[in-house]
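Run GNAT family N-acetyltransferase through structure prediction, thanks.
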Amino acid sequence: MPDRSPAFTPRPLRTARLDLLPLHPDHAAELAPVLADPALHTYIGGEPLDAPALRERYARWAAGSPDPEVVWANWAVRLREAGALVGTVQVTAGPGPVAEVAWVTGTAWQGRGIATEAAKALVAEVLRQGVPAVVAHVHPEHAASVAVASAAGLRPTTRWQDGERRWERTQEPAGA
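Sure, done. The structure for GNAT family N-acetyltransferase is below.
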């Protein structure tokens, strides 16, 4: 079962175009306008937060889950060529050998493969750290997130939660 060991502390990740940076409350000032479009929340729920409220959220996330069997790991997504933060990705690991992943890319940055590239890196990191099952919950009408989940190697299941389909990827243990 994942624990709060340093092995699951978010570390910087790099892809062809992106830097995934461990999320810090200071990222809120730059991310608040990126995530401000109310349409962005159609499928993920909630509403846009201003920079101070987002900073408070990121500080809570950075403090970690109140459940000792659950690890929260969050990253800000920076598109290197633009030198800009364009979204976030997150992992909630545990309890047990499963990690749930999620992604959000600002409306102005969508349609460029950023979420797909970030989600692939995130799923690879989860599997690299030895968590054998990766899941995401995706609204069936959110075609872009369905495409991201599929590209990240997750497959739809018959399980549902709060109107969202569970997507899953499992890794066989080494030597199996």
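The longest helix spans residues 114-128.
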